[in-house]
Amino acid sequence: MKIQSMWTAVIALLLLSPCSAIPQTALDSFGLDDLMTMLIQPRHLKLYAAGTQRNWELAAAESRDLRSGLGRIAQTIPRYMNNDVADSIKIMISPQVAAVDAAIAAADVKRFLTSYSDLTAACNACHVYMEHPYIVIQVPTSGVTTSYPDQEFRSTP
Questions:
Q1: pTM to 2 decimals?
Q2: In this model, does residue 150 exceed pLDDT 80?
Q3: Could you say which of 51, 63, 69, 83 would form a disulfide bridge with 112 (CB–CB 3.0 to 4.6 Å)?
Q4: Domain locations along the chain
């Protein structure tokens, strides 16, 4: 029942908020698992969908949102399992996000796919470091672009 109430509160915040950002005070009641599922995993997937569809403007926006979400998580949960979350992100994830950003800026799909794969591997390395080796994400498989059927990811002219 507690989880249902938590998700009801999140949905209410999202619906009542004038923008899609969740207020920091609302994030304080969530665990790292909740925040990763709400803020990071969807952006990781949407980044892939936008990049593979060569929608570089959307890919750049998703990358910015991914970085922002990681920052909010580090601010909300500074330490996890005796590990510094901000340092973990800075060392393991940020260089890979920068490589993805460079591929987006170059509008280079081959480079994007390589850097996205490297980012995904870095995420999994971070999961191992945070003592959650059983959480393994992957580059979406062929033919699967997103679980967001209500959003168009192709670039519009």
A1: 0.77
A2: no
A3: 51
A4: 1-26, 31-129
